[in-house]
Amino acid sequence: MALCRRDGRCLVLDRPTAVDPEVAELTFNEHLDELWRSGLPATHGWGRIPLNKLHTVIVLWADRGGAKEHYFIRLGGEYYDRWPPSVSFVEPSEWQPVKANCRWWPAVNCPSWLGLHINHALNGNPGQLICFSFTAEYYMVDHNPGESAVWTPGVHTLSATLCRLQEALSPPYYHGPSA
Length: 179
Fold this sequence. Notes:
Blueprint: E1 2-4, E2 10-12, H1 21-38, H2 40-44, E3 47-52, E4 55-64, E5 67-76, E6 86-90, E7 106-108, E8 115-122, E9 125-131, H3 158-168, E10 174-177
């Protein structure tokens, strides 16, 4: 995958590869803690459910013209922060990715920067693709993002990922659960 700049030079964007688990764990959880200390999650009413050292579920609230509905987003730190977190909408019973239209998959009129695919051939297997440049999965399929959209370690954090998802779960994009 290549990123071509305005001056005509192109960079090669590799596919995400796992980083050292200890480094990923430390950075992933440090950035989550920093985000929670910032007060932004309290402002939005977000929740945080740690699953293990490299995965946590974030509860985001969607706004459908005053009606509030919650969704569960599993963030993974296996590539973090060389790459963005992995992201999937999950069902609350076992925190597994949603596989079909249901209460836990949002109906969103996606803005130009977002694609939501419940059954995408990601790495040869059908699965979710929450497709924007602040998710690891975005870099697992061919894209040619603008230079300003590319994830930059040390500049972007998982806070940017969650803020963009919160934007998509708000008017005018969000329309309710898919089923």
